[in-house]
Amino acid sequence: MIQKLFNKLTPLKISAKFQSFFDFAQNFKLKVDIPNSNKYLLFKSNGPQSRSRAKTSLTKEKNTIEWIDGFSNNSNFLDVGAHMGIFSIYAAVKKNCKVTAVEPCLANLSTLNHNIILNNAFENIFICPNAISDVTQIDKFYVSLGNDKNFRDLAAGFPKRPIATRGEQMNNAYTHAANLITIDELNNKFGSFENIKIDIDGNEKDLIAGANNTFESSELKSILIELNEKDKNFSSIVDYIKTKKFKLNEYLTNKSYVSTKRSSKIYNLIFDKA
Questions:
Q1: What is the spatial order of strands in the sheet that 157-159 belongs to?
Q2: Nearest CA-CA partner of 176 in 150, 141, 200, 146
Q3: Which side of the chain, N or C, has fewer Cβ within a 10 Å radius?
Q4: How far is CA 104 from the centre of its chain?
Q5: Out of 3.40.50.150, 3.20.20.60, 3.30.420.40, 3.20.20.140, which CATH number does the structure's domain 31-132+184-273 have?
Q6: Which residue, 181, 188, 192, 219, is CA-closest to 80?
Q7: pTM for this model (two decimals)
């Protein structure tokens, strides 16, 4: 009798333990203190990618953090390629910015949303789940699975065509629909933006084609754009931004983290209104 009861209870206990562990893992979060401040950031950890990025949130791209530190309080910030929300949330918490966080990749949106709520920043940050391009239309959004074809807790993607971060063909990818929109349309609806960050892994040429009026706006003070120096469009993009009366901030640009994987040279260029 006792043995029969034990046999019935044991699976339930084991199941309960696994459930408790699962609940803990699902709700695990990392705290990152903001230096010289009593403020801090919280990030949800869904797996190794989000955990690693959270740990280096304020140290990996130091020039981006220093750039945001120079924003005026309560300014209007457009974060194109918000990913898991590190810079959107930092700007909202540190500078009380009003942020439009653009993130089209469905794999990242849940984490972005969760992080905004964790930091009580939902009144400051507006999520725009659209892809930025030169046109307004519904199209495919290609999400890379990487060489191992394993799903990651964070991902990167590309609208309209399967081109990976460094310009090569994206071989292992799944697709979902995305609404494409231009920066000019966003600026008309939610602007005027005072600072714009652009991190979209190779689609910069299309973005710029739809941002002409915004880049000419007297309200826009600075632009941060991640570019691959070995991309064929690198020089033309830099020259175009300079024609809009922006000057390269060499001090902050020279502090950029530089990625040189697979013979690329990717870093953040920062431009200030001349």
A1: 131-132, 173-181, 137-144, 157-159
A2: 141
A3: N
A4: 10
A5: 3.40.50.150
A6: 181
A7: 0.87
